[in-house]
Structure formats: C-alpha cells, structure tokens
Amino acid sequence: MSFDSAQFKRLERAGYDRIGPRYLEASASRGELLAALIKAARLTPGQRVLDLASGPGLLARAAHVTVGDRGLAIASDISTSQLACCPDVPRVAADGETLPFADASFDRVLCGLGLMFFPDDQAALCEMRRVLRPDGRLALSVWGRAEDVPLVETALSCMRRLLPPPKVARPSIFRFGDPDELRRRLTRADYCDITIEHLRLAIDFSDAAAYWQGFLDLAGGAAESLSRLPDAKQQAFASAVSDDLAPYTVAGGYRLTSTILVAAARPV
Fold first, then answer.
1. Is 267 exposed, middle or buried (0-12, 13-18, 19+ CB in 10 A)?
2. Is this model's pTM higher than 0.85 or not?
3. Separation of alpha carbons 151 and 215, rounded Å
4. If you ran DSSP here, which 8-state letter would residue 113 be given?
5. What is the Cα–Cα distance from 241 to 245, expressed in whole angstroms?
6. Are strands 132-143 and 72-77 parallel, antiparallel or unpaired?
7. Which residues on neighbouring strands pair with residue 12, listed in sequence order?
8. Where are the domains of the chain?
9. 5-145+171-204+259-267 sits in which CATH class?
10. Are 52 and 142 in contact (CB under 8 A)?
11. How many other β-carbons are positioned within 10 Å of the β-carbon of residue 208?
C-alpha cells in the first residue's frame, strides 16, 4: 500500500475538526498524563512554551499556570476547530512538520500524545529542536506498545474484524511504543540527555457503548473515516466491541489500563 502524507493530514484535520468540543470533554480523564508532562518539562516562571498537537489547549493552559503572565504558552494544532476550544490562550494553527516560528524562539516545547500523528516524525522532531533555545527542553508523550494500550487497541482490533483492510497505509500510532525505538528517533534528530518514563493510565467505562463513544471522541482521523460508513455499520461497532472488551470487565463496566511513555530531552 502507498502512503499519501497530504491525504493523511487532511483526514486527521477533518477528524479533529469534526470532534471539536467533544475531544475537550473526553480528554479530561487524562489529568495524570498532563501532570507528568508538566513535571518532565521542568517549567519555571517567565519561560516561553510551545505546545504542539495541542488539541483544545489543556496542556498549554497548564503550562501558563507555571510560566505566568511574564512568560508565554502558545497552543498550536493543525485543527482550527480544536484550537477554538481554548480562546483563553494564544493559538497558532500550524503543521508541526513546518512550524511558523523563528529559530530558538522557545524555552520549552511540549507534545502530548501527538508525535505519532506526524507522518514525518523526524521532520517534526527537527522542527521542535529548531525552535528550541540551546538550553531548552522537549517533553513529549506517546502510546506504548499496542498490546499495552487497550484503550486504543481494543477499538482498532474491533475495526480490523469488521472492516476490510485499508486501501491506504497509515503510520502506526504505536510505532514509538518501544522505549529503545523512541530513544533512537530522538537521538537521530539531535537530542541528548534523553529520559523516558512509563506511565500507567486507567480509565473506566460503564458499558461497551460508552467505550466506543469515548474512542470516537478522541480518534481524529479514524473517527472521520468511520463517519463515512453507513449508519447501520457505524452502530454495529458499539455492540461488537463488547467481545474485544471482555478481558477488561470489572464490577460496573470495564477498566482499561494503558501504558504511555513520557520522554524529555534537550537539543544537542
């Protein structure tokens, strides 16, 4: 299968535009991850911070709390609909592989669960390094291995059962799930002093329908592709995914505990 980077970006942008405010509500369950990224970034008052793949700006808002009014925290995302959810912070709609900022503009760059959505991850990492000051710091998070991320893999497994193979290849969102591979990618993009920590995030759902809607509210391009299916096919997923959720049954519904890698590094 061939891969069309421009088409992939259009699909992702359309998906996150479609999700809009629903993403903001669904992402509220990730407070533990947000706190881990803020800690890894080592923010201090007065710093200039860029939050890439910011979505509705939760991380940018959290950064502003620390850097204060003497500093700056900018939310940047490819989706203008997502950025519309954070009118209280400075916003810049941009492609993370070609950032519209001058060299050495920021003390910190943050990217929460975003790197895997950049088709050219090396271009994105190099752009992050370019806009960082020499003594700056990058803090990012990515999903772990597929088998360690049932929050996402359960839905993808259901889709593989019910849908034919995709006609267009997509980069795997789990491709940085191996810490050694993530370290190699960062090193290749000229980062050093790399640290990688594991975070376990548990999220509960009352039933299969709640899980499926939660997936759609965070899935971006996948949600956009599914929205183009016939209504009957779309409705079938909420029922069919219960088979995939069975291993995660707890009293009152389902609990899915997933691994996230939190990495920090500085420019060489």
1. buried
2. yes
3. 8
4. S
5. 6
6. unpaired
7. none
8. 5-145+171-204+259-267
9. alpha beta
10. no
11. 22
